[in-house]
Amino acid sequence: xxxxxxxxxxxxxxxxxxxxxxxxxxxxxxxxxxxxxxxxxxxxxxxxxxxxxxxxxxxx
Length: 60
Prior knowledge:
By secondary structure, the chain is mainly α. It has helices spanning 6-20, 24-49, 53-59. 80% of the residues lie in helices and 0% in strands.
């Protein structure tokens, strides 16, 4: 996982908890998930837009 060990991940989690507080962490996780989901959907949308209508007809 990005070259991080469990110790580093633990320290990052504790620092995030101290900075944002326990109530804000789930909100941040939800917002991050929605952002990544939207980004992934846009990438998939662009991939399907790259195919021309002729290619779509032949693939059906």
